[in-house]
Each structure stands twice: as structure tokens, then as C-alpha cells.
Amino acid sequence: MAIEVKHEIFPKNPKKSYGLVELVKGTSPITDKEPETTVFTWPNLVFIELIAILLSSIILIALSLYSGAPLEEMASPDTTPNPMKAPWYFLGLQELLVFFDPWLAGVVLPGLIIVGLILVPYIDVNPKGVGQYNYTDRKFAIWTFSFGLALWYIMIVVGVYLRGLDWQWYWPWDDWELHKPPSAVSLIDYSLILTSWGLSKGGAQIVAYATVVGYFVVGMTIPFIFFRKFYKELGFARYNITMLFFLMMMGVPVKIILRIVFNIKYLLVTPFFKI
Amino acid sequence: MVDFFENLKNKIVETQVWKSIFRHGFPDTDTNRALVMFSNVLLHLHPVKVRKSALRIRYTWCLGGLTFFMFILLTITGVFLMFYYVPDTRSAYQNIKDLQYALYFGNLMRNLHRWGAHAMVFLVWLHMTRVFLTGSYKPPREFNWIVGVLLLVLTLLLSWTGYLLPWDQLALWAVTVGSKMAEASPLIGYSGPFGKEMGMRVDNDIRFMLLGGTVVGQSTLLRFYVLHCVGLPLLATLFLAVHFWRIRKDGFSGPL
Q1: CA of A251, closest CA in chain B: separation in Å?
Q2: Where are the domains of chain B?
Q3: How much is the pLDDT for A95?
Q4: 20 to 30 A Cα–Cα from B168, which one of A8, A31, A116, B154?
């Protein structure tokens, strides 16, 4: 409700600038926020942090008293342990060595994971879901991230708990002291399968290249044609980067399945590297 | 009697020494609760006031804070371990044995350091997952997500370099596995794609640089020790400072 001003107690001085100052009842100064939605950090947050620190300390001390850090025989280059295992957080990558060459499993794939993670905020243009657990508005993002995370953890669990002597598959109830016979099936290259179907060597090589390139081309094209909204939201550059990383990530389980089901060792053999 | 202590307290609080250290009374009034956030360097990481919903544990699960606490805990226990550890292949293993069996609280410190390290790696992953699921990396916090990814890499490197230090079979061969991967790096590893074409040999590639030799040996132990105790923690501290600074400036994404 507007109040009519009959006469001003303090006439406006044109040389000065004025701001509205309001007097409200309260115990502390505050700006931009409704008073009832905020509380003092001390003690409300500081004490929660203190409790979290104390609880985690108690848990760690209890764990330390219950289970000690392992210490094996002194390091000796003459005796190689079997199996030879990396620290648990790298065992996912070591497990990948079963399916990929070391340059891919140990260097390029982890490198791509890091680069891909760094790119996340720049390729995800969806403005929704900031500051809340929101699945409905970000289904693609959540599914992709969760899939990668699941892959990472599954590989670690396999590496830690299911790989024994000679990096063979051991169930928990198997005798872990006993060597398993080497696998009866031998792995063959994709191009060899193709030649056995009657293709010439050169032809098989071309088909092998076409398969790998085709995987990416088809993978890039399908959303482009059928999910126009997805493409339009991202734009050309972001779409290509997103899909490239997405397809490379999906390529890992694809190769693993090809290896397990069809005993394919390499999909593509070039003079420089093998995939 | 109560008066006596009350008077004593007032006398102490009014001395020059006390006033030079504490600029305000105990934070039980609103003024002091604000002042404590300004005057205490560690508390200064916080804003004076937070939204009520920020206190919902089920939003952050305290994961970032706990990761930082692990870092502090590892620094403290790590300094303790450094008093007794010499990065020499002839004595390192015996030093660890001494820590385990001969020194008061030596074993507890070593176990705490080990569990803290496991916890830190795991907490960093969980923190990152939480940040992703709540979309907290979206503008204006994109850069802080990058800093976070770098901190994740640093955490893994810290953990990995520490793995070698006990100089037992576990350490030696875990690092051997890791360095085998380094030698397969494209372009800069001698057995990796295009490595030989780039002129890489066993004694000049990335693995050689990492190990300080062609096998895991004394130079490797020293390199990993220096990186683990000085180089990487300094880098991590730097990035942590940026990480906290940015979140303080940009504000928390959601409930916190």
C-alpha cells in the first residue's frame, strides 16, 4: 500500500545518491536470503563436521586394530609371485589386460577415462538437475555415468576376488592352491575367422578395418537420425565428442563379449598396434 | 568458589596475551558466531551462515570433507612413519618390521596410514559419484570438477607410490605390473605403438624415467619416496586449496 508523502522531513539532495534501507527485527545482518532458511555455520555445520571426523576416526582405529597392513617377504626380483597383482584400485585395469594389449588397457583407456571425465561439464549442456538427485531430467547422463562406474567396479571385483594362479578364473569355493589347466579353446583373430569363410587375406583385412570403422560410423549415425532432439541439444561439436567417448566406452564391453563368446583375440591387426 | 573462577576467567580474558590470540568470546552469541568464521583461518573455509537444508546429511554424505580429513590423517601418520623409515633397499623392509613389532604405536600408525589410504581412494570415488549425480559440476562449477579429476589422479598416484615403500614382494611386483603398462605407452614407451619409431629404448623411455632404471630398484624406491612424501602432497595441497577456494566462491550447488 502506497503511503502518500505530504512533506519530506529530509529533502532530497541531488548531489547524493540514496539507497533504501529497511529496518527489520533480527539478531544478525543478512542479505539476499530469507532469514528463516539459513542458520549459523557455528555450531550447526561445524559440529556435524566434528562428529563426522570423530566417527571416521573411530572406524579407522577399529579397522587398524582389527586388521593389520599386509607385509610379505622382503622384495626379491628372483621370485615372481603368482598371480602378480597391482593395488586393488588398479586391478580393473589389470583385468582389462586379459582382453586388450597393455598399451590400450594400461595407458590409453585410463587416459581416455580421465580426459572423458574432464570433458563431462563441457559436453553436458542439460541445465536441469543442479543441486539435487534428479534422474528424470538427465536419464542419458545418469545411465552413462553409472554404466562406466559399474564397469570399473565389476572389473575390480573380478580382479580382486576371482583371479587366482596364472590369472585364471577362480570361484571362491575353488582350491586356490591348485593350478587350473590352460584353456582348451585357443583364441583366433577376427581376420582369420573371415578367411576361413572364404575371404582372401586382403579382403579379410579390409572387412576387419570396415568392422571397426563401421562400429563408430553406425554408432554415430543412429542417434543422429533417430534422436534428432538429442543431436540438436548438443550441437555438432559436442555431439561428436560425446558419441566418440560413449562409443569407446561401450567398445570395452563389446570387445570383452566378443572375446568370451567368439574367442576373438584381435579385431584389427595393423603393423603398429592390435585391437 | 564460583565467583573466584569467574573472576579468574575475567582476569585471564582481559590480559594482553589472551586478547592478542582470541579476538572475541566463545561463539555463543550471533556476533561471535560470525566473528569466529572471519578470524579462524580453517573455519574461514565456511560461510558465516548456511542454508538449513545444507545440514541434510543425505545430500553430501560429508564425502568431500571426509576425503580431506583422510588427507590430513595421512599427513599426520605419514610424518610419524617418516621418522623411522629410510628409503634404502637394504633397510626399508627392516624399518617396516621395526614399526610393526618394536616401536610403540608403530603398528597402529602404519595400519591407520594404510586404512586411511584405502578410505581416501574410495571416498574420492564416492565424492565424485555424488557430485555427478547431483549435477554439481554444471555451470559455474565446471572448472572445479576438473580440479577434482586432477585430485583423483593425484590420490591414485599418491597411493601407488606409497605402495612400493614397504619394499616387500607385494610392493615390488605391484609396481612392476604398473611400470609394464608404462613401457607400453604409445610414442613414449619402447614396447608401445610407434615407440620404436620414436627412438624409444629400454633405457630412455617413460618407464625408465619413472623407475630411474630398467628394473624396480634403489633409484625407484628413492623416486617414489620423494614423490610420495614431498612432491605429490605439495601438488595435492595446491589443488585442494583451489578446489576449496572455488567452491567457497561459487557457493554450494544444492542443499550444500
Answers
A1: 19
A2: 1-49, 63-250
A3: 93
A4: B154
